[in-house]
Amino acid sequence: MSTRPLGIAAIGYAFMGRAHSQAWRNVAAFFEVPAIEQRVLVGRDAEQASLAAARYGWAESATDWHEVIGRDDVDIVDICAPGWLHAEIAIAALEAGKHVLVEKPLSNTLAESEAMVAAAAAAQSRGVQSMVGFNYRRVPALAYARKLIADGRLGTVREVRTSYLQDWLADSEAPMTWRLRKETAGSGALGDIASHAIDQVQYLLGDTVTEASGRLHTFVPRRPGPNGAENVTVDDAAWATLALASGAIASVEASRVAVGRKNSLRIEVYGADGALAFDLERLNELEFLDVYGPKAEQGFRRIVVTEPHHPYIDAWWPQGHVIGWEHTFVHQIRDFLVAIRDGKSPSPSFEDGLQVQRVLAAIEESAAAKSITIQI
Amino acid sequence: MSTRPLGIAAIGYAFMGRAHSQAWRNVAAFFEVPAIEQRVLVGRDAEQASLAAARYGWAESATDWHEVIGRDDVDIVDICAPGWLHAEIAIAALEAGKHVLVEKPLSNTLAESEAMVAAAAAAQSRGVQSMVGFNYRRVPALAYARKLIADGRLGTVREVRTSYLQDWLADSEAPMTWRLRKETAGSGALGDIASHAIDQVQYLLGDTVTEASGRLHTFVPRRPGPNGAENVTVDDAAWATLALASGAIASVEASRVAVGRKNSLRIEVYGADGALAFDLERLNELEFLDVYGPKAEQGFRRIVVTEPHHPYIDAWWPQGHVIGWEHTFVHQIRDFLVAIRDGKSPSPSFEDGLQVQRVLAAIEESAAAKSITIQI
Amino acid sequence: MSTRPLGIAAIGYAFMGRAHSQAWRNVAAFFEVPAIEQRVLVGRDAEQASLAAARYGWAESATDWHEVIGRDDVDIVDICAPGWLHAEIAIAALEAGKHVLVEKPLSNTLAESEAMVAAAAAAQSRGVQSMVGFNYRRVPALAYARKLIADGRLGTVREVRTSYLQDWLADSEAPMTWRLRKETAGSGALGDIASHAIDQVQYLLGDTVTEASGRLHTFVPRRPGPNGAENVTVDDAAWATLALASGAIASVEASRVAVGRKNSLRIEVYGADGALAFDLERLNELEFLDVYGPKAEQGFRRIVVTEPHHPYIDAWWPQGHVIGWEHTFVHQIRDFLVAIRDGKSPSPSFEDGLQVQRVLAAIEESAAAKSITIQI
Amino acid sequence: MSTRPLGIAAIGYAFMGRAHSQAWRNVAAFFEVPAIEQRVLVGRDAEQASLAAARYGWAESATDWHEVIGRDDVDIVDICAPGWLHAEIAIAALEAGKHVLVEKPLSNTLAESEAMVAAAAAAQSRGVQSMVGFNYRRVPALAYARKLIADGRLGTVREVRTSYLQDWLADSEAPMTWRLRKETAGSGALGDIASHAIDQVQYLLGDTVTEASGRLHTFVPRRPGPNGAENVTVDDAAWATLALASGAIASVEASRVAVGRKNSLRIEVYGADGALAFDLERLNELEFLDVYGPKAEQGFRRIVVTEPHHPYIDAWWPQGHVIGWEHTFVHQIRDFLVAIRDGKSPSPSFEDGLQVQRVLAAIEESAAAKSITIQI
Question: Are D344 and D107 in contact (CB under 8 A)?
């Protein structure tokens, strides 16, 4: 690695591209990271890409990602394109010797994800790093929750209860989009949001899901398209129970039609000696209880996770000055850059992303077979 | 029915007997009900029964329920004995022409419950009433929730999310009891508490579960007994997804090892046009949201269910003066007595109790067969 | 004291009479107390009193309290009549050798309260006990809060923040009542509900208010009466800051026009080493924080005050089975009866009630003099 | 105004300088604003200023603010220096024709603030704008609260209840700083945080405080300094009641020793027809209740203020993706820049800042005179 700043290229300027851009733009103002430059933003539409690049702090824009990943002044490729493009871009970028950050899901199919894992392993042997963007691992409250569990503060974890509820599809008249077609989206609530819950289960416990039983349902089977009603071919909601290698059991419920829930990823972890509860709509808070001390004094304590001792927080503001959702991306990029600097494998790896895909596939298989439990 | 007060006999003076006794003692002070007399409390231990009777307001005590159900001055038999005795006592009492209230679960086996339903139907034709004690139907917030749903305030209900979490078995050293043996308890968290959640799903929606997929688990398989460790033969925790006749889907999670949760029956209902949320630990509150009005003003509203317009409340205190868990039993007895007075069938009926048992049996069958979905 | 049951007479059958009656009816079923009999309920209207007596468990009814306090079979007089009658009845009853429980406020004037204190002192020397009914001292969460403070768990208390907010007078068209006239009610929100907050401040800290600055306001100065609009001559809302002997400072805000608050007595206590928070609308909960342990783990813990180790709770139900507002009266009577049995002075005493009156008077005086601080 | 980007100079790089810098760096990525350039960051220490400038996105750094405000390429001066420097810098910058944004408090003395208001008026006549940084006006939930009140959704506002509680001085051993000396800080909790609460009262209601009664207290009168214990000469906590021109009454409590409260600005507003509640520790939420519709359905609704229809939010993320504390500064700068572009007076003006100072002064005067009410 030369001493010049690392050159960054981002592919995609929609919702995720915008979120990643603000992270690249701000990371160095808050964290000690290698010097970077926002070199180029790639998008299909030249004019839109140019406008977005100017707005989001990129030096220039481009429309051909093949060309961009070949540039000498690009060291890192950040893939925010739709899932069906992940494998092709990521593998090419890794082969071109670029470090790669790819948004979740790793890809839309198991086969693609397996190819990406192979490419990542090959690249890793050449010192080229890769990472998949399960950004909620960088919520300070959840990073701290993982630490509490790893430190044994909950004792043996027995049960994890998760749900990820949104309501942007609750209205039956909400129109058809690419996210509602199996061929473009892969799956619905399952891949889009249950994937976050499943990743958290494995992340928080440092454990692996070994079997799954699930159910999928589409409450609104047809939605208006530009030329009349179209069939929705993905799930609106998903349910699963998961067994983990440790013996813990987790439940998952995901829905995009849960009226009144905006972005509510809730997680509860129950161990032999303590418990945790979290809600993404209040992402600066963590509830924690342990069974030590007088029984009369026990209760879930609401920790405002804004102390310097909490993960990532010393870079931000004084206590009680809450941070926003987007900062999970700043933290993600901070960790990615530090791993690159130190020559270490970033986490979560493509292998971690593939493992989540395997669980999703098992849930789909189970759902198609009357919920019978599938081994992973 | 003569003009003399209705004579009440209660069988059992443990936890449930004590809760029912306070209801019999107080119901007439708050509600307009037929006159009653607390005639006799039945228990196996003569001395204990006598002390309990004196304490809880019963005129006398007895040890032989057979004798008591034959007494002319007993009109109503309230069965708070353990589940394995329900069928025998209830059927005998009904045949003796006594109205019967039986604590949930209706019984420990499907066969017994079916016999009880048959006995109740026969008694009903003779004007003798019966009721099973799913007391949470009489939580004002839940009775009001049912009304909101029945009035269409949520639109078509799509998803119900329930959990019933306790922690009194979280400690691995908590000793063996009859509640942890299959032959006495029937099942564990499933029958004890998931049954309440399942009854609520059907009650709130006015709907019927038609299929179930489930999982059971025993986290603490052996516990200390008087002569050394014994095997726990029931579940510590249970998970299920249920399909309802209407097309709604419900999830259920029950646990007696969920550290920090004391008596937390949580219910969330999501319809096309609104949603509800409830937690038994805050039983005077109901959260309600509907999608009408400006989107910017929408949010779950915390209704303090203590207004005169709320079910049962006009009998109690001014607004904001919260009531306790035990009053669900007062309400239950009020409704039971009014139904007897009016010659109408009380609700929930033995048939309702049997339907819950069928769902529990389906979950057990599914759990034993790798969670495969079972039709009910 | 003879071995026969203590005979109880209650005066008043409205809201408070009904609440006290349920306590007399139930106390022996839950607590170990001397035997009692609900002898006679006194009310001005013979027919209403008779009906109320039958309904609330009293053996008989009467209309003349003078006669009743002279009866040999009456040992305890429970005064639930309006405040302007308290002094006369209480003093007569004490002189007649009856133990007296009087609802708060002790009386409507300082002079009356001083006379009552004198009568109580004289009676005490003859073994006759007296108590004023600040029932919120018997909320388990608040009794437990007092214990935590007394045990030093908060360190030196610095600030107490209290509010008691209701909304039953928020509607400008709510009609005139005796509670809105100075001559019958004494004061408005100040005496009715701020008094509870002030008593709690002194009770929780075991401390005495030594000075007060206050403000009173009537937001709805005229209300409809039977013959047209009438002037409201008491306050709708009150504010005060109080200095305590220990150096702590407390704020008080009371309102009966705070839309949306039903019966919300909120109390927060901040000490050097810990803090507490409470809301009467969630009376089974107490929030507690201390500064010990790792800073990253600190947070207000929500204690569900339903454990056997919490005050009064072992008499009730298993953990998580919440109790209601009315049980504060059961606890109050339990403590009153135990004090009588043991020949000890019950708490809060008439002197405690007088001290609250003194604070109320100082607030009124301050409010009339541009909030200037008044010494007590 | 030329067509070149507006040049920005910021003075101060500590906490507030850092917060303002991120706002300048990000505003154009989210909002439509005139083009800007972060020209120069001014600080006393040349090396620190240089490092901060590089880190926070400024083209260069400087140490002499006099020189900077004279630069032709500087159009806007953003003053984040300590309060005692505000007046001198602001007046000089305005006279130099620069638009000025000054952090709250406007200054440390009434006299200085009055001079600043005069300078702002003179500048305004020349098209030069000025603004004081009460950033919490730009919390979307509070901006929306103001709109609800202005739209009459609460009816006539009667009571406002505010508190601003922190605990960073709770530890008696926390060391002496310039913030604890009257000569440098002006006042303690009063000016530092009660000022925010007071500004909110006036902002939310669109009203003016006309009289105040107050109390100040220093719980920890001496703290360790580098050469031994030093006297704390400002308040740790402050209490006030305020009357407003409309007849509404507001209470204020501020503390920096309220253990367990990190940055908790809580505001409750009660009107004749509705109410609002807010807590800065949950700044993405607003509780709102109105008295319309069935009484049984009324309750405080928790609005997650992340909808496109909420103020400022359409620039950010999809619903439920919460924003952080720092974005109040982005919004503030957005509004400042838009006002400059449109030639309109930004709000809050220096006059608004002065009005808050007058209220603070009245509280101090009242506190020094036994809380007697002071006219403003």
Answer: no
* First CA to last CA distance, chain D: 39
User: pLDDT tens digits for A232-279?
Assistant: 999 999 999 999 999 999 999 999 999 999 999 999 999 999 999 999
ipTM over 0.85: yes
d(C-alpha D172, C-alpha D257), whole Å: 9
Tokens representing B13 are 């003076």
In whole angstroms, give the CA distance from residue D27 to residue A331. Answer: 20
Give residue ranges of D with CB < 8 Å to any A CB: 15, 19, 21-22, 25-26, 28-29, 55-57, 166, 168, 261-264, 280-284, 304, 306, 317-327
Tell me the chain D residues in contact with residue A15 when contact means C-beta distances shorter than 8 Å: 317-318
Closest CA to B177 of B167, B188, B166: B188
Residues of chain A falling short of pLDDT 50: 1
Q: How confident is the model at residue D127 (pLDDT cuts 50, 70, 90)?
A: very high
pLDDT over 50 at B100, yes or no: yes
| DSSP letter (8 states) at residue D175 | P
Q: Which residues are within 8 A (CB) of A326 and not within 5 positions of it... i.e. 6 or more apart?
A: A19, A22, A23, D317, D321, D323, D324
| DSSP structure class, residue D22 | H
**How confident is the model over D294-332, as pLDDT tens digits?**
999 999 999 999 999 999 999 999 999 999 999 999 999
Task: List Cα–Cα distances, C244 to B302, C202, C248, C375, in angstroms.
Answer: 36, 8, 5, 11
CB < 8 Å to C320, chain B: 166, 261-264, 280-281
Query: What pLDDT is attached to residue D286?
Result: 98
Q: Which domains does chain C have, with CATH numbers?
A: 6-135 (3.40.50.720), 137-324+355-375 (3.30.360.10)
The span from the CA of A110 to the CA of A116, in Å, is 10
* Minimal Cβ distance to D271: which of C255, C259, C369: C259
R_g of chain D computed on alpha carbons: 21
| DSSP string over A282-342 | GTTEEEEEES-S-GGG--EEEEE--STTSTTGGGS-STT----TTHHHHHHHHHHHHHHHH
For B125, other C-beta atoms within 10 Å of its C-beta total 8
- Chain D partners of A57 at a C-beta cutoff of 8 Å? 29
CB B186 within 8 Å of CB B361: no
Q: Rounded CA gap, B364 and B370, in Å?
A: 10
Q: D176-212 b/e with 16+ CB inside 10 Å = b?
A: beebbbeeebbbbbbbbbbbbbbbbbbbbbebebebb
Q: What's the pLDDT score for residue B1?
A: 47
Q: Is the peptide bond before C105 cis (omega within 30 degrees of 0)?
A: yes
CA B37 – CA B49 distance, rounded (Å) = 17
With H, G, I as helix, E, B as strand and everything else as coil, classify residue B251.
strand
C-alpha D364/C-alpha D371 separation (Å) is: 9
The string of pLDDT tens digits covering residues B197-214 is 999 999 999 999 999 999
- The predicted model scores a pTM of 0.97
